[in-house]
Amino acid sequence: MRKLLILVIILIAGNQNSFAQKKSYSTTDWELIFSFADYQLKGEKINTPPRFSCVLHFGKYKHLDLTKNIGLYSGAAMRNVGFSSKISDTLVKRRVYTIGVPLAIKIGDLGNDKYLYAGGEAEFAFHFKEKTFVNDKKTKESEWFSSRNNLFLPSVFVGVNFKSGLNLKFKYYLEDLYNSNYTKNGQKVYENVNSSQMFYFSISMNIRKGTYYGKSKTFNKTS
Question: Where are the domains of the chain?
Answer without folding.
Answer: 24-212
